[in-house]
Each structure stands twice: as structure tokens, then as C-alpha cells.
Amino acid sequence: MKKKARDLFRRSIRNFFTDHPKIMEQQQQRYSYNPTLRWNPEVDSYLSHAYGPDHFSRISKALTRPSCYSCIRVNTLKSTPNSVIEKLRDILKGASISKCEVEGLEYLVFVKGTGPHSVDYGCDEDGNVNPPLKEILVSRKCAEAVLRGAEVYVPGVLACSAHVEKGDEVAVSVSVEQPGAEGGWVVGITRGTILQGAETDPYHFERSGLYIGRGKAMMTRSGIFRAPEGTAVDFSDRVYNLPSFRGVLEGEIFLQNLPSIVTAHALDPQKGDRILDMCAAPGGKTTAIAILMKDEGEIVAADRSHNKVLDIQKLAAEMGLSCITTCRLDALKAVCSRNESADITKLCCTNDNLDATIQGFNLMKSEVEKIEVIAEKDLKKNVTNEKANERTYISRADIRKDMRRKRNGPGRNQCVGGKAEKSKGFAANSFDRVLLDAPCSALGLRPRLFAGEETVESLRKHAKYQRKMFDQAVQLVRPGGVLVYSTCTINPGENEAVVRYALDTYKFLSLAQQNPRIGGPGLVGHFEFPDGYTEEWLRLGQEELVQRFDPSSPLDTIGFFIAKFLVGSKEADLEQPAP
């Protein structure tokens, strides 16, 4: 059954790998996309031991590239996969769209992207461009978003050639962190730097193999560095072409990584269940669980960030879901004593609050538009007499400040309609199912152009933090309930080692089979660090009870890990976790 589900999924996306027009030539030249993912040496050694050098090399290569397809989750309470496919074909002209064939996942839709493409920068046989193209240098995070289908927006531009005018052809390159003179990693380029196209430019040689496309400048050089927002480049040719779904069929579809959707299925939510999503933002898994429950039951979506909780409320209202309540909650303080337990309906946002949240967001948008209109009228008027000059003036700086404040969401003191109440925690054994999608090192997310910021020490700190959150989660699930633990990292210390800790510490926990199972097995064994600390992973026979998604596998997903625990009969007192 495990192999069948995996084979069915591979068949669903098989055609995505068979047609690669203009495949990028493997040529060593400056104007190409051939990144090398840099790791901390100790982390490189650790992960090479876990996976084997060759396998880890393939994983590192896969992480620098986006998946070849976009996975779309259809809101089956509002639409159907066939209806969505028909609408998407009208919107995305010529796109290859298919439906998932795996049993239970038929509501997923895959949209094919293309790449890698060999972008024509006008190179001669030696790989030189004469005359050199004007160039726009973007930040690493901007480039990673562009590789996923986004545009280059002005905040992401770091440097630019001199005398760039609107409409000029430009090459787009990436600035990736480099070793600093005093240790650590630095960008090393001040925003607004002029690129001369010469070897004396900052990190001229380091940018070789880091060109992601070409297009036309949408603003002059001065406009790019003065404008607070807007599109800087209109791409004519990209290394990877993936469709953007921004504003497309809102409420009917949700763009989500496949392993995240499988995580919701692993929880196996049932109608009428009371479920806690401990680290719920941005709400993708929360809404996936609600739809699997047919919006019948109660899901408490918690996050420690005020504005992120408002985002969850907005998404739930957009998708028409009424079973989701939200609250601000520190996952390290999720359990409270019974006499401190408060009624969750008082602590969490009700459906009326969700409606108010949407009205608040719409109100903010209308207020921004009004301010812009008033300001434009004020700025265009040529006031010549002293009396007229006495009227109220709204500066562009004030407009930008007000727009940023409102775009970032209503804070505690500027709330417009929505509110994120703070929870004091929940009573032990008060949930049927708990999802702990723990904050992690995120080393499985792709595309990724830099990984050197993580050290062995930081990875071990992540794992320590996750064990503390697990200690809270396990107390909240009732006997007979289900606890699912997941991360988006390839680090076994945050995955298999946490599972091993859980099974050794809480004897009433047991690993359970997951359905559907399309991921690979977990890692068995251990690793001994130079300081003598030994990190224990899974034991033989346990590897097939977890799901590990490998970025270099034919599934072409992000790196991800899922473990499902059944909670047995608990003792009078939970065993105290090891310090």
C-alpha cells in the first residue's frame, strides 16, 4: 500500500519531468544559474554522515532549485477539483494542469512549471557579453521568491548599473552572503551601490553562476531607490517559469506544499473532534484540517504572534470556515492548571470577530486609498497665496508611514475590527488531537541559495526548543488521542532525534501508521559530536512508521518530516522529561 501510493503520486507528476524546452546547458560561464549551496563545515560533515556524501550532495543541489510544479489544495466546501481546473485553464493559458491520483488526495491539483532554461544574455562563444548588459542586483530572499514565480519588487533591489532608464534591458543577478572579514557572513553591498560591470565591483566573481533572468527595467535607477514599492523588472526570460497565484481564485484554492497537506491527513481529523494546532500560522494546515472535518468540530489555532493570528482569522473567513477559533499562545506555556483554565470561547476569536477582521482589512485598504487620493490632490495643487498655504498638508513620508503601519496589520493599539486574544493555556487531556508543526531550522525549504547561517550549536538549540514544546503538546492530548509532530527541515536532530526522545521519555506513546504514505523512511542510527554528545535517531523497525520527504527524490517536494503518535493510557503523573 505504501509503495502503491508513492507510485501513484509519481505517475501524477511524471509528465512534469518529460518536457524541458531550452534545458540549461551545463556550461561554466558567468551568465548562468549554477549555484553552490554553502554550509557551515561542521554542519556539512554532520549531514554528510546522516545521508552519505553523495546523497547529501544531491540534496544540496535540489535545494537550490524550486519544485517543477505548484501544488494547489481545493477548498471542497466551496468548489470541486474539476471546476478549479477549468477556471485555471482559462486564467493560466497553455498551462499543464492535472489532478492527483492518490486515494484521498484527489482534491489536489498540480500546475506544471518549466525550467531550468538557458537564458540568452547575448554571450559569445567564450561566455562574454559585449557590450555588457546593464545589471540589477537583488537580495538573496528576493531571488528565492523570483525563482518561485514572484516579481522583482523595489525593496529587493540592492544595486544597479549606472544610467539605467525605464525600458532598458537588464540582467538580474543575486547577492549571496559571503564570509566576513571578522568572521560570520555578510552581504557586503550597500543598497544603492553603482555596478560598473567591472571586476572591481563588489563580489564581481562571487556572482558568477548566479543570474536568474533578464527583462526590462520598469523604473529609472533613481526611481528604483526612491520608490517605496512597485515592480522593478518586467521579466522576458527566467531561469524557472512558475505561475503566480497571487489573488487567483481566493477562497477556492490554497497554494500549499504537498507534505504540509499530508500532515493534515496524518492527524486523521474526524467530525466533532476538538483539535489544537499549536503553531498554526499562517493557517494552511489549520484550514486543511477544517476542510477534512467538513467544518464540523472545533479547531483551536494558536500562535504567539498577534498579527499572525489575525492572518489566520482572515484566511479562515476567506475560505468560509466557522469551526476555527484563534488565540495568542506561547507554545512553551500551553498547559495550565485546571483552576487557571479559561473558557476557550472567551479567549478566542468568534465567527463575529472573523467577520469584523475582514471588514477591518477592507476598511484599512479604503483608508489608504483615501489618503493617497487626498495627498495627490494636495501635491498637485499649486498654492500661491499665504492663506492657502495654511491648510493641512500631508507629506509623502507620512503617507508611506501610514501605509506601512496599516499594511503590516492592526497592532494592539491600532486594531481595526480584528482582535487576537491571549490564552492562558489549556487543561491537560483537553484535546482529541494535537498538531505540533514546530518552528525549526527550515533547512528543507526550497529554493534556497544560502545555508551557512546554521551551526551545529544552533541546530541543537532548535532541537532543545522542540523537545520543550513536545513536552507541552503531549500533556494536552487525551488518552486514546493522536499527536502529530512535523517540521520542514532535513536535520535529523530536529526530526528522528525528537521522535526518539518522545518514545524514550513517554512510555504511553507509540508510533502509528500514516495514511496516505508517499514519503520515504526515516533515518536509523546515531551521530557522535566532537564534544562527546551522542544524538540518537530511530531504531530498526521504526523508520517505516515516519515519513521523510527528500528534496532530491522523484517526488520533487520540499524537505519535510512527519511522525504520528498514538497516546495510550497515561500514568497518574507524567514522567518528568530529562533536563
Blueprint (SSEs and pairs):
Layout: H1 2-13, H2 41-51, H3 53-63, E1 69-74, H4 81-91, E2 97-99, E3 108-112, E4 134-139, H5 140-147, E5 152-153, E6 157-161, E7 169-175, E8 178-179, E9 185-186, E10 193-195, E11 211-217, H6 221-226, E12 231-238, E13 253-255, H7 258-267, E14 274-277, H8 284-292, E15 298-303, H9 306-318, E16 324-328, H10 344-347, H11 351-380, H12 396-407, E17 431-437, H13 456-476, E18 477-487, H14 496-505, E19 509-511, E20 526-528, E21 534-536, E22 546-549, E23 560-567
Parallel strand pairs: 4-7, 6-10, 14-15, 14-17, 15-16, 17-18
Antiparallel strand pairs: 1-3, 1-13, 2-3, 4-6, 5-12, 7-11, 8-9, 11-12, 18-23, 19-23, 20-21, 22-23
Helix pairs in contact: 2-3, 7-8, 9-11, 11-12, 13-14
Taken from the alpha-carbon principal axes, the silhouette is: globular
List segments where confidence is low: pLDDT < 50 over at least 5 consecutive residues: 17-28, 342-354, 363-391, 410-417
Helix content: 25-40%
Termini Cα gap: 40 Å
Can you give the mean pLDDT? 86
Structural class: alpha/beta
**Major beta sheet, specifics?**
8 strands, mixed
Strand content: 15-25%
Radius of gyration over all CA atoms, rounded: 26 Å
The number of distinct β-strands equals 23
Please count the helical segments. 14
Descriptors for this entry?
about 575 residues; alpha/beta; eight-stranded mixed β-sheet; 14 helices; 23 strands; about 30% helix; about 20% strand
